Amino acid sequence: MNALGQTELEMFLESYTPIFRSGAMETVNHLLFGDEFNKSQWNTHLQLSYGINKRHANGVISFAKGKVDAAKAHRELHIKTIVGKIKSIEKWLKSSERKLKLARKFYAKKNWQHSKTGCNFPLSCSLKYRDTNWSNLKFQIHGKKRKLVLFKNKLEHLKVKPIRVYVPHGNVFIVGSKDESFGNQVAQWDSQTIKIRVPQCLESRFGKTVSSNIGNFDWNINRLPDIGAHTWHFFCKNGRWVTAVQFTPKPVKQQSRSVNYGGIGIDLNPGSIGWAYVDPDGNLKAKGQILLQMGLPNGKQDSNIVGAVLQLAALAGSFECPVVCEELDFADKKERLGEESRKYARMLSSWAYSRFYELLQSILSNRGIELITVNPAYSSLIGLVKYMKMYALSSDYAAALIIARRGMKLSERLPSAINAYFEVNSEKHVWHWWSQLNKQIKRSGKINRRHDFFTVSNWDFLINLISGEAQALEKSV
After folding, report:
1. Which of 56, 144, 378, 380 is an S-S bond match for 52, by CB 3.0 to 4.6 Å?
2. What's the rounded Cα separation, in Å, for the pair 58 and 176?
């Protein structure tokens, strides 16, 4: 260390980062506003302009290109989110205005008090707020229309607004190659000491190379291999230099067998994870629940998620089977939060769903456990109708059972007790009939909560609904 308490490597990084940032900013501007990008020609331009060699210039180009690609992807995601919110508001407005229109039409009839069908949106008054539900809905419609105009204006602005990219201070990026010794020609690490080749512009101050001792990266998982490309990233954080290395980890021995021999399905909820183990015949053999906490700070939230994922990995290792989860797009759900209830919006916003699946994929792959994703369509409904009462399960266990069976390519047909009330057409997909059943259950009013599925002895209440629809269709014809 010198008199300032810094090593030779830290002094070199302090001197090289302004040069690296200038080259990165010029590259970013060229990528955004320049003509067709020719990497070879631009590499030569950086070498001549900043006095660096080809390998250093490759690091500048890769760093700048990553920043530009990330900014473009963020802009596309921003536009997609606003478009989703616009569609959600328009759908809500259409439904709400139709609700008011039908309600006015109902009360305009004579003898509406003796109507057999009733009003879809009955008029009521709140003594607390001294207002009617009709007036409250009109006020909400007015606010949604204002928000709709705001989002449309923002969307038009984003489509023409130029993309801006921020290039941070204190960064050095050195790209590696698998054909070079130690995976990198410029930065070579022998598990103890890293030696970095100095660019020409700084050779007069630091010589040909600078070196420093760096701690071992030998972890229990993802050990740094001796061969393969090693890309180094040096960045300054809180006044200290941090070193990161990107590499292809050593292959891990597969611990899980094929899903045909069974699997663990998981159903993710804000406060818990329900899991169910299914044997090769598709029968439930084990189940359980892993508790999770909500509303924690980022660091504690990650620790909580990692603990839950490690429990799942231990279960999968003991059963020697893969983990099956849902393909859920929570970004799409969060676009509709403005039109959902406060409870539902708070539930989705207070827990890191995407972070859970990211850590799940990483930890399971490091342990040689396969992760299978399936379409979650009607998984909760099928679990409630078919298996909740059969095995005396809660709703999360039943959904996890369906997810596991779907990962094993097992079909879920309607129970025979329900088939009697539907003219099932074998040419249509089985999900079509689950969709029809879902609509009939909502219209019946017999089942208002999940616990009601335990009390359903038979499904004869569907007869009145189906026959009533047939009669109405005959009258209309």
Report:
1. 56
2. 9
Q: Is 234 helix (H, G, I), strand (E, B) or coil?
A: strand
For residues 97 and 141, the answer to whether their CB atoms sit within 8 Å is yes
User: What confidence tens digit (pLDDT) does each residue in 418-466 have?
Assistant: 776 666 566 778 888 888 888 877 777 677 777 778 777 777 666 655 5
The label of the residue with tokens 């603990």 reads 307
Q: Residues 426-438: pLDDT tens digits?
A: 677 888 888 888 8
Q: Tell me if 90 sits within 8 A of 152, measured CB to CB.
A: no
Cα 425 to Cα 422, 431, 432, 473: the distances in Å are 9, 12, 10, 20
CA distance 32 to 166: 12
- What pLDDT sits at residue 209? 92
Question: Residue 21: which H helix or E strand, with range?
Answer: helix 8-33
Q: Report domain 261-412's class.
A: alpha beta
Q: Which residue has the tokens 């399971």?
A: 364
Q: What is the largest CA-CA distance in the chain?
A: 99
User: Helix or strand or coil: residue 348?
Assistant: helix
Say how far apart CA 274 and CA 401 lie, in whole Å: 9
Containing H/E element for 12?
helix 8-33
Enumerate the β-bridge partners of residue 241: 236
Which position has the higher pLDDT, 473 or 301? Answer: 301
How do the domains of the chain map onto residue ranges?
Answer: 261-412, 416-477
Q: How far apart are the first and last CA of the chain?
A: 93
DSSP at 370? -
Residue 305's nearest CA partner among 348, 272, 330, 343 is 272
CA 155 vs. chain centroid, Å, equals 23
Q: Are strands 171-174 and 231-237 parallel, antiparallel or unpaired?
A: antiparallel
Q: Answer yes or no: are the C-beta atoms of 336 and 88 closer than 8 Å.
A: yes
Whether the CB-CB separation of 93 and 144 falls below 8 Å is answered with yes
Can you tell me the distance from the alpha carbon of 247 to that of 225, in angstroms, rounded to the nearest whole number?
8
According to DSSP, the residues that pair with 274 across neighbouring strands are 267, 289
Query: Residue 369 gets which letter from DSSP?
Result: -
Say which amino acid occupies 210. Answer: V
Query: In this structure, are residues 315 and 65 in contact, taking their beta carbons and an 8 Å threshold?
Result: no
> Which among 470, 446, 472, 477 has a CA at the least distance from the CA of 460?
446
DSSP 425-464: -TTS-HHHHHHHHHHHHHHH-S--SGGGGGG----THHHH
Q: Do 63 and 171 contact (CB within 8 A), yes or no?
A: yes
What is the helix (H) or strand (E) element at residue 246, kind and residue range?
Answer: strand 240-246
Q: Which residues pair with 213 in a beta bridge?
A: 193
